[in-house]
């Protein structure tokens, strides 16, 4: 029976090419947009190299200082503030810090290069998972010794020392200062602001980090938990630390209030957008995304309903002939269900192939360096299931109504 359904469906698809094309185009285009969009969101927010532990990581990105007169200042934290209030935390398994990336000039003879530079502590290499292609990270001993050393990414190595050349032990000159390269890592996209850079140096190499005495500066902190269950404890401990720091502010100080939170990456992103209004950004973010996806799929689904109704009405005479030869309502409905399922399956397959091709082109053409988009199979399954549900609903009801008509009326092309 199923084989006969499939044969009839294939014949109908070939005979009514316009309806087939419109249906496949609507399904494939809608699913392709959702799959590619989900790949970009995964690239931005999901655990990815080198932040592979993002699901058990908290970030402290900002410190806001307010006065009782209403004005405020905010930004990344200073090294002094981190030493006093972040390094003292007991709950995190590991703590690392990194500065906001800035551009700098590097020289090789008469050649000038422009690179991103980031200052970090030794813990930075413990809370991330960089692939070292050569050498090793710098350690706390290097910082204590005030060593002028650097870790560079593979693009910097290729540009400065030559494609695939050995770089460890050589020197890179930046702003007239020579730094000894002790490691080469595989680079990561600049969209991962906490970890991406061309050149990494210990914070002792920063000209300003040690001198800043205010709370705000140039550093963010990455707090790695032993387990996801420890994340609320880390948040609570940091909140208590900030409360104590605020109590210790001298009464003569201009800024008397401190606002700073340890948040998950997505929570922090949403909180920054809404100026701290969202304490837990994940439910809100995913609700907005889900509503957008549902709305985006509803419009083509409504068009597909109208298209299926027109297609079934056009086939009234066919239904009448089949009823005249003894086809039951159940068999007729089953035929239309198989048709809709097959069209949805073909549309979904086309969407998957098209999405894979688009993602491959984006990655291979390097829309931006080190981009690593991937298909999110959970989103594919969910979008495909919703599309299939819409397809079934759009075909079953009119098919059921038409199957109930007497054969003579169906042959005259009566309306549903």
Described by the principal axes of the CA atoms, the overall outline is elongated
Q: Percentage of helical residues?
A: 40-55%
Number of strands: 13
- Give the strand order of the largest sheet, numbering strands 1, 2, ... along the chain: 5-6-11-8-10-9
Number of continuous helical runs: 13
| Count of the domains | 2
Q: State mean pLDDT (0 to 100 scale).
A: 83
Span between N and C termini? Answer: 26 Å
Low-confidence stretches: none
Tell me about the largest β-sheet.
Answer: 6 strands, mixed, barrel
CA radius of gyration: 30 Å
Strand content: 15-25%
Which structural traits does this protein have?
13 strands, six-stranded mixed beta barrel, 2 domains, 13 helices, single chain, 416 residues, elongated, alpha+beta, 49% helix
Structure in words:
- The structure is a single chain.
- This protein has 416 residues and is of the alpha+beta class.
- The chain contains 13 helices and 13 strands.
- The protein has helices at 2-15, 17-45, 79-85, 124-127, 140-144, 154-160, 231-247, 265-273, 281-314, 316-324, 329-365, 377-403, 407-411, and strands spanning 57-60, 63-66, 72-75, 94-99, 102-108, 111-120, 132-135, 149-153, 171-174, 177-185, 199-202, 219-224, 257-259.
- The model has no long low-confidence stretch (mean pLDDT 83).
